[in-house]
Amino acid sequence: AVKEAQSHEAEDKQRREEIEIRNRADNLAYATEKSLKDLGDKIPAATKSELEAKVKAVRDALAGSDIEAVKSTSETLMQASHRMAEEAYKAAGGAPDGAGGAAGAEAGSQPGGQAGGAKKDDVVDAEFEEQK
Fold first, then answer.
1. Is the pTM of this model over 0.85?
2. How far is it, in rounded angstroms, from Cα 99 to Cα 57?
3. pLDDT of 79-106, one tens digit each?
4. Pairwise CA distance, residues 122 & 101, whole Å
5. Least confident of 2-6, 75-79, 88-92, 124-128
6. Using the 8-state DSSP alphabet, how is residue 122 labeled?
7. Which residues contact 41 (CB under 8 A, 6 or more apart)?
8. Coil vs helix vs strand at 93
9. Contact between 122 and 108 (Cβ < 8 Å)
């Protein structure tokens, strides 16, 4: 039994890697769809349709058995998703290029959003009450 397990070790490792790649791609597609839904009109229609097409490409690749297709489509989706997050963050009035400092409320609510510091004159000090 030990020899048999050792002979299948490489296959098991490759299979585990494929499963992890598929899971990451599926999670990325889900997170991107959620971001598109949450951001709605805050991103340009062209960006939204581009991302929807890339999500569909990832879903189609996941339906197949070509792991390289899953890798490449999820990589392009990840890059496009990061661009979308940057555009949405800038549109929300964030600091360009995610300058260091405390994270704004908008950055914390977006997957892939970067924590960006506001300049001293851009800071809004506010109090809030939680209503139930």
1. no
2. 33
3. 999 988 888 888 777 654 444 433 333 3
4. 13
5. 124-128
6. G
7. none
8. coil
9. no
Residue 99 lies in a domain: no
In a domain, 117, yes or no: no
Q: What is the C-alpha to C-alpha distance for residues 59 and 112, in angstroms, rounded to an integer? A: 20
| Token output for 5 | 């397990």
**Per-residue pLDDT tens over the stretch 3-12:** 888 888 989 9
- Give the model's pLDDT for residue 123: 67
Q: CA triplet 4, 8, 12: central angle to 5 degrees?
A: 140
Tokens 């260091």 map to which residue?
100
Q: What does the alpha-carbon distance between residue 110 and residue 68 come to, in Å, rounded to a whole number?
A: 28
Would you say 51 and 32 are in contact if contact means Cβ atoms under 8 Å apart?
yes
Report the 10 Å Cβ neighbour count for 105: 9
3-state secondary structure of 128: coil
116, part of any domain: no
CATH number at residue 18: 1.20.1270.10
**pLDDT band at 122, cuts 50/70/90?**
low
| Owner of token pair 């998703």 | 81
